Automatic annotation (TrEMBL):
Keyword list, A-Z: Repeat
UniProt entry tagged with the keyword Oxidoreductase: no
SUPFAM superfamilies the UniProt entry points to: Fibronectin type III
Any Pfam family the entry gives: fn3
Top-level taxon of origin: Eukaryota
Stored PANTHER family: NEURONAL IGCAM-RELATED (PTHR13817:SF166), TITIN (PTHR13817)
Protein name per the record: Fibronectin type-III domain-containing protein
């Protein structure tokens, strides 16, 4: 194939496209004039090339124990990926653990390229990594000369302003001096980063090394020339073609002269330091004071316990050693060819927990009860060898070597016996200090009366408030939140999380709505209506409103985002969704499933909530370090059992659900031996790790399945007139991500690449167009890496045009607190101009924030460290899960052991039978612990011989 490229006296670059990966292509170049035609061809250097890319992600990765039974290593295996045009040269296996707090797996590095000044055109290149790429031929360098001579023509490889290295010394290719087939001018490279064209490589520099002949010259990996408004997709391809860079994601924001390209390094973990920074050669950028500056947007952080091992291409497996049993290790494998490392692959599931047999038990006692019976007591453990202990193996007899012994049937873990211990590394323990105990009860009991009286009508999905004569109404919206547990009569429900559940207000209709005055007229007169009160969310036609005032008995003042009036004379129903006197009921086990009450109507009765409920919390930031602090929406001062003030340092609580929600503790950091929870306030709850409350922990996506969903609206509008449909576009930015797939809202110009990601404001004005455009916006948003699922609807108003898109974030990755979307490039930067009217600035509003409920762990009153057995018995029997216990106290070093026997009403699960020892005081490391123990009585012969016994814990490994 021959291509006529054009005239360029200074040489040029030309990209050959639409090639087949893996094939060898030979290339040559002609010079031609318009009198005699083409001259002789000149082969390129090298004369051929193979179009190729980095290897794809490694697949079929498996993690296993291999032959190990100790739980201290694992075997990683994988398949060899295909790599057309370049064989695999090796692998990198990386493994790490999950942190207890965000960021769970480190932080991806982000580097920025920012355009500055007034740029009128031109190109730039980007280099990355060490100056270690050997160039063809050799060079001679003479001490004191400001140039080097080369054996081959390097002018097609090196540009003025590039970095080069010879004999271990680094220079820039100077902007002055002769750059020819045999000569390279040198410039000082002290300032090699972020130099403007006017200052880059302008200072000639003599070669300061020893005079050499036949030296190798090196340069950085760098891109071809890129336009000053290069698309993020094109920049991404150019960067990923560099062997020094793995896989990246590029987003572009701003506009001409103010572009910012954000480069996120996806496959390279941890921080990247010089020379692993994006270096721009700006010499060919034109304009007034133009430049393109590189900077660090986000400093990368390596995952916890990060390690890497390089594996030769001849192997597709490796044994990773030095692991800790019971710790989940996350593993990735990536392959490299001459283009560098590709994207890593992950196994499914992404982690493996090495497991070994349990360790030997501690605290095993044997004592004689009679001539024919002995008592064996041992401490039980939940986990050992990295797995749950599922049974205990007991042997006993008169033989100390156990060659002859009686083996009991496997003994299962039990919940009947518990030992509570206080101790200190250095005593004595302060006799005035205290501790608390808890069973695994975050649910509590329904004993908090909301006040007021309520109805649950047959075949209804709402609890509604009534006001008997002389009664006082309460505001349900500050007493219970969506997702909360409530009980009316003997019926238990959860308040629905879905904000669209509603009911038609019987006997009330809307006769008129004036969107300009924000007034709804109703009929008949309300006359102190118990449900339609200030703060109630209603829907009339398809307009969502919140009642803000009651100007008269027949009018409601409302807030809304609607732009069409109706009436007078209408008879539209008024639908109630939520308010101070109305809450929707859902299934107790699933707050997303509405329930219809089918029994007899329940009238004028109280409603109760749980005594462990602490209300809703916002600031649910799952992806940022700030996700370890949540904010309470109210402090129930009238009932401190339902407020944050009921918590203390190191106390336990659950988020989302009292049965299965995430468990955390009040963050209690320590400075030396002094610990405190100053971050705990009447409105702020800091999250601490369940095992180490002095360490921060973070919200999980699973927890937020019980949270409300965030809803945002986008308003595209004009003050007067109407837009023409079918033209006019914009992009959406969500965090660092910008839409980059659709072309529907592009300007239709010849540069198609400049139009990617432009959404069309409207394809038409019909209901069918509303549905189609909503689907298009949904599809585009779900192409963004940070969004997996949304629901989109649109309401379109005319004269003037106002288009309101409503976006509900329903996916797994969009739970919790989200960035506010931004409308960018409205009618610009490749997006089509609006016609027919002048667009106003777009408005984005958060209609509903995400919040989740929290539940404290029920705990005893403070127990003195000197408490008697009767004191501890009384404290434990306060707990709702406990019935009757027997307690025996014994001295244990500088503290006590309280042996607790659940004599009646044994709890099914004591996994969180915990002690909070924050208020214990001693010279060094006071501690209160709760340990399950078991007591087994063994029948023996009355033969006056010694009895020996032993116990082993068992897990899935043996």
């Amino acid at each position: 194939t021959t291509t006529l490229y054009g005239t360029n006296a200074n040489g040029a670059e030309y990209s050959i496209t639409s090639l087949t990966a893996g094939l060898t292509y030979f290339t040559r170049v002609y010079c031609s004039n318009n009198q005699l035609g083409a001259g002789p061809p000149v082969a390129t250097v090298p004369p051929s090339a193979i179009p190729r890319q980095k290897p794809p992600a490694v697949d079929t990765i498996t993690l296993s124990a291999g032959t190990d039974t100790t739980g201290k290593s694992m075997l990683v295996t994988w398949n060899t990926p295909t790599s057309p045009g370049s064989s695999v040269q090796g692998y990198a296996v990386e493994w790490y653990t999950k942190s207890v707090a965000v960021p769970y797996f480190g932080v991806q590095t982000q580097q920025l390229l920012t355009s500055m000044g007034t740029i009128t055109g031109g190109t730039f290149t980007v280099a990355f990594g060490a100056t270690d790429v050997p160039l063809p031929g050799v060079a001679n360098a003479v001490n004191g000369q400001s140039y080097i001579t080369t054996s081959v023509d390097l002018t097609g490889i090196l540009q003025r302003g590039d970095l080069l290295s010879i004999s271990g010394l680094t220079y820039l290719v100077a902007t002055t001096g002769v750059l020819s087939a045999s000569s390279i001018p040198l410039a000082d490279a002290t300032a090699w980063l972020n130099q403007a064209p006017i200052a880059l490589a302008i200072t000639p520099a003599p070669y300061t090394g020893n005079t050499v002949q036949g030296a190798v010259v090196y340069r950085q990996h760098r891109t071809p020339s890129l336009s000053v408004n290069v698309l993020p997709t094109d920049l991404q391809v150019a960067l990923e073609n560099l062997p020094s860079i793995g896989r990246v994601r590029v987003a572009r924001t701003g506009s001409t002269n103010n572009f910012v390209w954000t480069v996120t390094f996806l496959s390279q973990f941890g921080p990247l330091a010089s020379p692993n920074v994006l270096r721009v050669n700006s010499l060919n950028i034109a304009g007034t004071a133009p430049n393109l500056v590189s900077s660090i947007g986000v400093v990368g952080v390596s995952p916890q316990n990060y390690k890497i091992q390089l594996v030769p291409s001849t192997s597709t497996s490796v044994v990773l050693s030095g692991l800790k049993p019971g710790t989940a290790y996350f593993v990735t494998v990536k392959a490299a060819n001459d283009r560098g490392y590709g994207m890593f692959g992950s196994p499914a599931p992404p982690s493996y927990t090495p497991i070994g047999i349990p360790d030997a038990l501690s605290n095993v006692w044997l004592r004689s009860l009679s001539q024919t019976q002995v008592e064996l007591m041992y401490d039980e453990v939940d986990m050992s060898g990295g797995a749950a202990v599922d049974q205990y193996l007991i042997e006993y007899g008169n033989d100390a070597s156990f060659q002859v012994a009686t083996a009991l049937p496997p003994v299962l873990p039990q919940n009947k016996y518990v030992r509570v211990t206080t101790s200190a590394d250095l005593g004595p323990i302060d006799p005035t200090s205290v501790f608390t105990l808890s069973l695994s009860n975050y649910f509590g009991v329904y004993n908090v009366d909301l006040g007021g009286y309520f109805n649950l009508i047959a075949n209804s999905q709402f609890i509604t408030q009534v006001i008997p004569g002389g009664g006082v109404a309460v505001d349900l919206t500050i007493l219970v939140a969506r997702g909360e547990f409530v009980k009316i009569a003997n019926q238990e429900y959860r308040v629905c999380l879905d904000p669209t559940t509603s009911f038609a207000m019987a006997g009330v209709s809307a006769t008129q709505f004036n969107f300009a005055t924000n007034v709804v007229t109703v009929s008949p007169a309300l006359n102190n209506h118990p449900i339609l009160v200030v703060g109630t969310t209603i829907v009339v036609r398809d307009c969502l409103m919140v009642i803000t005032g009651l100007p008269s008995t027949t009018t409601l003042s409302v807030s809304h985002q609607c732009f069409a009036s109706f009436g007078p004379g209408a008879t539209d129903p008024v639908y109630v969704r939520w308010g101070p006197s109305a809450i929707p009921i859902c299934d107790k086990s699933n707050p997303w499933t509405p329930v219809t009450y089918t029994g007899f109507s329940i009238l004028e009765v109280p409603v109760f909530k749980l005594d462990t409920a602490m209300g809703p919390f916002t600031n649910l930031d799952v992806t940022a370090a700030s996700g370890n602090v949540v904010t309470g929406q109210w402090n129930d001062a009238a009932n401190t059992a339902n407020s944050i003030s009921s918590l203390g340092c190191e106390d336990y609580f659950r988020l989302g659900d009292p049965y299965s929600g995430q468990i955390a503790r009040v963050l209690t950091p320590c400075i030396g031996a002094t610990c405190g929870c100053a971050g705990l306030t009447p409105t702020v709850l800091p999250l601490g790790d369940i095992a180490s409350p002095n360490l921060e922990t973070s919200l999980s996506y699973d927890t937020l399945q019980y949270a409300t969903q965030e809803i945002q609206t986008i308003r595209i509008s004009t003050a007067t007139g109407d837009f023409n449909s079918g033209v006019g576009g914009f992009r959406l930015q969500f965090g660092a991500d910008v839409t980059a797939t659709t072309l529907a809202g592009g300007n239709g110009g010849i540069n198609v690449n400049a139009q990617y990601g432009c959404l069309l404001w409207a394809s038409g004005v019909t209901a069918l167009a509303d549905a189609a455009d909503s689907a298009a916006l949904k599809a585009e948003l779900e192409t963004l890496p940070s969004i997996d699922q949304v629901q989109v609807s649109r309401k379109l108003y005319l004269n003037p045009t106002i288009a309101v898109y409503s976006i509900t974030f329903t996916g797994f990755r969009v739970r919790g607190k989200l960035p506010t979307m931004q409308v960018v490039d409205q009618g610009s930067n490749g997006c089509g101009a609006f016609t027919g009217a002048t667009p106003a600035a777009a408005v984005v509003t958060k209609v509903q924030n995400a919040y989740v409920n929290a539940y404290r762990l029920e705990k005893t009153s403070d127990i003195p460290v000197t408490a008697t057995a009767e004191d501890v018995k009384a404290a434990i029997e306060q707990l709702s899960l406990s019935c009757k216990v027997d307690v025996v106290r014994r001295v244990a070093k500088n503290g006590f052991n309280w042996f607790v026997t659940f004599s009646r009403g044994v709890p099914v699960n004591l996994l969180t039978f915990n002690a909070n020892d924050y208020k214990l005081r001693a010279a060094l490391a006071p501690l209160a612990t709760v340990t399950r123990v078991n007591i087994v009585k063994l029948n023996v012969l009355n033969n006056a011989q010694n009895v020996y016994a032993r116990v082993a814990a068992h897990n899935v490994a043996g």
